[in-house]
């Protein structure tokens, strides 16, 4: 089976999985839930991605009910939940448009989750290369091994891993000991809770300081006039890279100067993390799984 990555930071990759890796992922998720016989799953994510296909394959393997719809529609999703659907897999933008209390559980994947979530929402961490989520609510599922390398990269091992990349001259991400090098940086707490810092290739180094886009985005989202935000790093002759913030305002008539944006971010973060350029947008381009298309945003900037 061939799936494509989101390509949020560049060119999407084709990832090949076998029936064994698909079944292995379904098995570890089944162990998490326990009794799956009474479940009724809603499939509303694109089946070309592992997040969407995983809902379908798990329901078939578990022999539980499945309802599939062509695309996410908030009104339809709520209606179906009232008719008996118990579980769904969604992204953060979709979650914010529905009454999540209508479901027994919702698996949340894709982009970074909001800071506060209802108790029935389960955050997931995984990649196309892992056949979907393998860490639920920051804890590795049974049969999933997580390790942090010396340079803070998250490593994952288990029978659910990809076979190989498709028709691309890419280095194989699984080492000789069976560890998948995810390209994500993070840490494990003393009680084995996983924290994901961000993608290695999205780290911004400005004036010698390390800046994670997600941290600046979270600060911007606390502003009452911001409905969405995305932060990228672009080449800069003075700083090496400069922080650029793309902002979708809640009210287009509300205007703020660059100094005002920098001052606001500096209230909660070090001054060096504040954006040196702000671009106002009507919307942030996102993948089908809700991930911001950072490379596409970079390409809109004049060199």
UniProtKB/TrEMBL annotation:
Give GO terms for biological process.
fatty acid metabolic process
Enumerate the spans annotated as AMP-dependent synthetase/ligase domain. Answer: 2-137
Q: Which family does it belong to?
A: Belongs to the ATP-dependent AMP-binding enzyme family.
Under what name is this protein listed? Unannotated protein
Q: Which keywords, in A-to-Z order, does the entry hold? A: Ligase
Q: Name one GO molecular function term.
A: medium-chain fatty acid-CoA ligase activity
InterPro entries according to UniProt:
AMP-bd_C, AMP-bd_C_sf, AMP-dep_synth/lig_dom, ANL_N_sf
Claim: Repressor is one of the keywords in the record: no
Protein's UniProt keywords contain Ligase: yes
Read off the Gene3D superfamilies from this record: 3.30.300.30, N-terminal domain of ligase-like
Domain AMP-binding enzyme C-terminal, chain residue ranges per copy: 216-291
């Amino acid at each position: 089976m061939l799936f494509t990555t989101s390509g949020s930071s560049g060119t999407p990759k084709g990832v090949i999985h076998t029936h064994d890796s698909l079944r292995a992922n379904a098995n570890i998720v089944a162990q998490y839930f326990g009794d799956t016989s009474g479940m009724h799953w809603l499939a509303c994510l694109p089946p070309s991605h592992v997040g969407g296909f995983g809902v379908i394959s798990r329901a078939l393997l578990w022999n539980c009910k499945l309802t599939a719809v062509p695309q996410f529609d908030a009104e339809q999703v709520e209606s179906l939940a009232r008719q008996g659907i118990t579980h769904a897999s969604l992204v953060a933008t979709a979650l914010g448009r529905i009454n999540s209390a209508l479901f027994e559980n919702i698996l949340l994947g894709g982009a970074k989750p909001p800071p506060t979530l209802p108790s029935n929402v389960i955050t997931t961490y995984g990649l196309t290369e892992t056949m979907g989520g393998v860490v639920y609510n920051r804890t590795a599922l049974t049969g999933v091994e997580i390790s942090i390398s010396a340079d803070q990269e998250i490593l994952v091992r288990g029978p659910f891993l990809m076979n190989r990349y498709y028709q691309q001259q890419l280095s194989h991400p699984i080492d000789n000991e069976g560890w998948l090098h995810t390209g994500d940086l993070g840490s494990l707490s003393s009680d084995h809770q996983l924290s994901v810092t961000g993608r290695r290739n999205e780290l911004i180094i400005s004036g010698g300081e390390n800046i994670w886009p997600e941290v600046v985005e979270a600060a911007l989202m606390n502003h009452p006039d911001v409905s969405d935000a995305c932060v990228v790093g672009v080449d800069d002759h003075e700083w090496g890279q400069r922080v650029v913030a793309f902002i979708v305002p809640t009210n287009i008539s509300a205007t703020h100067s660059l100094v005002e944006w920098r001052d606001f971010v500096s209230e909660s973060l070090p001054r060096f993390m504040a954006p040196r350029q702000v671009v106002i947008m009507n919307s942030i381009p996102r993948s089908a799984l809700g991930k911001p298309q950072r490379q596409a945003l970079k390409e809109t900037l004049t060199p």
